[in-house]
Design brief:
single chain; alpha/beta; 7-stranded mixed sheet; 4 helices; about 10% helix; about 20% strand; globular; disordered N terminus; disordered C terminus
Length: about 400
Amino acid sequence: MEDSVHRVANSSHYDVGSSVTEVVKMYLGNKGESKDMIEVLKVSKSSNMQSMDAVVQKKYPIYLKDIARGEENIQIPLVNEYESLELPNFLYIKSNMVHKDAHVDFSLARISDGNFCAECYGDCLSSDLPCACAAETLGEFAYTKDGLLKENFLDECIAMNLEPKAKHFYYCEVCPLQNDLHQKLKKTKRCKGHLTRKFIKECWSKCGCSRKCKNRVVQQGIQVPLQVYGTPEGKGWGIRSVNALKKGTFVCEYVGEIVTNQELYERNKERVAKQEKHTYPVLLDADWGSERILKDEEALCLDATEFGNAGRFINHRCYDANLIEIPVEVETPDHHYYHVAFFTTKDIEPMEELTWDYGIEFDDKYHPIKAFKCKCGSTYCRDKSTKLSSSIR
């Protein structure tokens, strides 16, 4: 770190609609880095970064107090210890938001009598018998009373993810990933299969239990201290846990814009033409097998490039990542939309980077999203072009 840096103070004044980049630009003033507009400080190694709201040097940040702008239960700081990384230019949102054409129905009428626990009171996990909300997990709640995923449920999810069997895949008659109209009409590409995953169903507004019911974990938001940081391996921004975490701990969701596959296809064509960076989108295909043919407005994915949360910073790691994504049903029983929740697959050490296997096939030339050059560093890296690896940020 150079001695001369720009300090940006009093972060409580920025507008909640400002992106991370806009927040810093506002304090730097319209004249950019003019010393007349900002305070130049001498920062020693003993400086207490936690007492500062932001420290920015030239175009890249040294420290930001809270990239979430107060949206989360806890602050999520950003630190840059290794590289000259530019600020991630996005707007932090706590919950998924429909972009335009995506069909997501949150109406209470969609939740039938068998899909909520009207007779429950207080905490459903304290009852002798599981309620209706445990039906999705075969009559047993997926969570323990400590808020962790039950180990047998988690291990089944991990095994299905690492070594899926043929019966775990669904093959579309007309795959929504065939976004080109000519390909759809000609049916030129066979569906490569979509992994049918195990769901968790949480209690929600129509249920009789309290907001503090132990079957409401993901909807409570981020509870563990996280930190966005510049990775030393050249992977760009990453995210790590400040404290040790137990196996089965909920970390965060992957939050972004809810877009149709067609909308994503059009976006990607434009981004490629402009050579713009983007996050790797998440396809909401965990239960496509429940409907033979999906309408375009029901074939959904999450794009966190411009609007997202802390989950957009989770880097890819082939095979032996320490997080796993699990689909969680909350507001609607329609499984073409769900929450993508990240849980730890093992005990996590303090300040350990959190990683997730994106499920990328690096040699797939037909996937609508082109794979990046992997820098994950895993012994099991699937990118044959390199032994080192990571994600676009």
